Amino acid sequence: MMREDCGPEWTLGRTYKKTCPFGEFLTVETVEGCIVTTTTATLFPFYYKDASRETIPEEYPIKRRHTTVQRLRMVKDSHLRNFTVVNTADCTGAISFRYAEQCSARNIRVEIPVVADNYCPFSINWSKYVSCLGCSTMFDEELAALLKPIAAEGFKAYSRYNLFCIFASFGCGFEQCESDFSTHAFNITAGRVGHIPCVGCYVRNCRASNAVWAGVIVQQACCNSLLEGNKVSGSAQGVVSGGRNTVIRNNEVYCDLPFETNYYYAHAKRGGTSGVGLFEGYAGGSVIENNVITGARTGILIIDGYEQNNIFIEGDIVIRGNRTHECLNGFFLYKNKYNRNLNRLNILLEENSFIRDSGTTARIGGHDSSSYGIRLFPRTCGVTLRGNAVSGCKYGMFVSSPAEEIVVEGMSFRIQLTEFHVNATSIHKLGFSLKTIRLSMLKLRKKSGDGNK
Predict the structure, then answer these.
(1) Is 361 left (phi over 0), alpha (psi -120 to 50) or beta?
(2) Contact at 8 Å (CB) between 300 and 275?
(3) What is the number of alpha carbons within 13 Å of residue 189 lying toward its C-beta?
(4) CA distance 215 to 185
(5) Residues 1, 12: contact at Cβ < 8 Å?
(6) Rounded to an integer, what distance in angstroms lies between the CA atom of residue 389 and that of residue 387?
(7) Which residues contact 367 (CB under 8 A, 6 or more apart)?
(8) Of the chain's two ends, which shows fewer C-beta atoms within 10 Å, N or C?
């Protein structure tokens, strides 16, 4: 599963201090001795009986010695409907599917006057085609207010109250569900045992409010996820993914947290609060389109993780038709200190709009902070900016050197300054420490005080 062995198209990712093995559900057609024939082909093409052809970094030891086939007897066609659960202090969950196929939960409400640590009321584990529709949680307001400061505890509290979770499953999802407080509200993630990722799971038309971190998140190597039509408010992150081939589409994110917000995974220097985004380097092949983000410090964020191996070295990412309002950064690409090379990311940023009406700066910590329509970190390579519109930001586009293969086409800038900044210099000084930058069909309009252009 390492990049060194499979190439970028098959690398699912790494988690902190762990590898991410792959697993999938297969229906057996015949068994002849040691040969198992399945009714369909495998999704992953590189199953080997041992690790002899795999690179094994010392810091990420591969624990398995061979491929394992495990027989499962699934619970099938079981459905839960129309009831309420009142949580107690000793309860760690309410509805849990495990080894289930074609099962569902509908219109179930969980009331939470008290809560235990590591609480997850709705979970789907090692299952196939299981859905939760119209389910909801209701935290006691005083309890939720008491729990919010756990953000200061950082990573150890990161998953303490993840309320709707899918682990190591295929084709499962949440739809029209609601969460009113959480660490992460809706979470598609790898299994707690074995760290097998999810494939083809979804969160659709759900609502999340007051999440300490993300309203909707895909993480730990899960791939082919769909995050669509969700509404997130009052959360540090809106809809984000660290998984390959994720589609983030038609979501609405409203963030009322102050720009000063600065804690684990929402550190201000790394973009702060964010609306939609991709993180930790293994979210290649993803699409972000037709989302609306209001009030986050960064509207659309592509960000490396904190660790050396969790960095973007490939992309093939499309970001199209999104709108941000009153964000300090419309779009921000951040690279951590370990990501030193000019890796070509193949990112297309097309027909998005980044709008501020509240001024070109924001007062943060006693200082005026500048606003950016599009902001690219140093060492960025392979980004095409086409047909985007920026209005009301101090810098329409800000590219820091060194940078290579940045293409800018058909852009419209309505900005307070007459300067268009590349590498903190005006367009007239373009070329300092930059390579292969192409600009064409740009519209630069100064926004004057009387409304004339």
Answers:
(1) beta
(2) yes
(3) 18
(4) 5
(5) yes
(6) 7
(7) none
(8) C
Helix (H, G, I), strand (E, B) or coil at 155: helix
pLDDT tens by residue, the chain, 453 residues: 455 555 555 566 654 445 566 778 888 999 998 788 899 888 776 665 555 666 655 554 455 545 567 888 899 999 999 999 999 999 999 999 999 999 999 999 999 999 998 899 999 999 999 999 999 999 999 999 999 888 878 888 888 999 999 999 999 999 999 999 999 999 999 887 767 889 999 999 999 999 999 999 999 889 999 999 999 999 999 999 999 999 999 999 999 999 999 999 999 999 999 999 999 888 999 999 999 999 999 999 999 998 887 899 889 999 999 999 999 999 999 999 999 999 999 999 999 999 999 999 999 999 999 999 999 999 999 999 999 999 999 988 898 888 889 998 888 877 655 334 554 433 333 333 344 555 555 665 655 443 332
Say how far residue 36 (Cα) sits from the centre of its chain.
37
User: How many angstroms separate the CA atoms of 178 and 216, rounded?
Assistant: 11
Which tokens hold the place of 353?
A: 């709009």
Structure tokens at 15: 């988690």
Q: Which two tokens stand for residue 255?
A: 């963030």
Q: List % helix, strand, coil for the chain (3-state, nearest 5).
A: 5, 40, 50
CB count within 10 Å of CB 370 equals 16
User: Per the structure block, which two tokens stand in for 109?
Assistant: 């409400």
Place of tokens 């969160």: 203
Q: How far apart are CA 277 and CA 272, in angstroms?
A: 12
| Token digits of residue 360 | 């070109």
219's tokens: 């993480």
Length, in residues, of the chain? 453
Q: Where are the beta strands (DSSP E) in 99-211?
A: 100-101, 104-112, 122-125, 131-133, 136-139, 164-167, 173-175, 178-179, 186-189, 202-204, 207-209
Q: Spell out the residues 6+ positions from residue 273 whose beta carbon is closer than 8 angstroms to its own.
A: 236, 237, 255, 257, 259, 261, 266, 296, 297, 298
How far apart are alpha carbons 145 and 142 in whole angstroms?
5
Q: What is the pTM for the complete model shown?
A: 0.89
Angle, vertex CA 22, rays to CA 247 and CA 227, nearest 5: 15
